[in-house]
Structure formats: structure tokens, C-alpha cells
Design goal:
This protein has a single domain (10-71), classed as Helix Hairpins. Helices cover 71% and strands 0% of the residues. The chain has two helices and no strands. It has helices spanning 15-30, 36-71. Helix 1 runs antiparallel to helix 2 (36-71). It is elongated and about 55 Å long.
């Protein structure tokens, strides 16, 4: 049995859930009991979560700019 963590697909998470998971991963990686196998999985997952969060933030920023531009017309 592997101690490598399993994760919910990123697309199935809300932004808030993704951030909460990132915080949890950080705590786990800083812990003394984090194995090398888990460390690799956590690093990959954190990168995936960060990319998705950034993508959502950029999309939201652009949508807000469009909405505000429409208000100025």
C-alpha cells in the first residue's frame, strides 16, 4: 500500500477549496513525516493547483475589466 496521496481533480474544486488544499499541502510538506514519494506528489499537485488558481484569477480579472468597460459606455 502506497503512502502517496490521492487528489480530487483540480477542475472539480472551487477556488477556495484549491487555496485550502495548497495550504494543507504546505503544512504536510513542512512536516517531519513527509516521505520522498509524497513530497514529489505534493509538489506536482501544488503546481497544478497554482496554475489553475492563476488561470481563474486572470479570467476573473479580464471579465471584471469587460464589465467595467461596458458600464463606462
Amino acid at each position: 500500500m502506497s503512502d502517496t496521496p490521492t487528489f480530487t481533480p483540480v477542475k472539480d474544486l472551487t477556488y477556495s477549496q484549491a487555496v485550502t488544499e495548497l495550504e494543507s499541502i504546505l503544512r504536510a510538506m513542512q512536516g517531519d513525516s513527509c516521505s520522498i514519494d509524497s513530497l514529489t506528489a505534493y509538489t506536482r499537485r501544488a503546481t497544478e493547483l497554482l496554475r489553475e488558481c492563476r488561470s481563474r484569477l486572470v479570467a476573473t480579472d479580464q471579465e471584471l475589466k469587460t464589465i467595467l468597460a461596458d458600464l463606462e459606455k
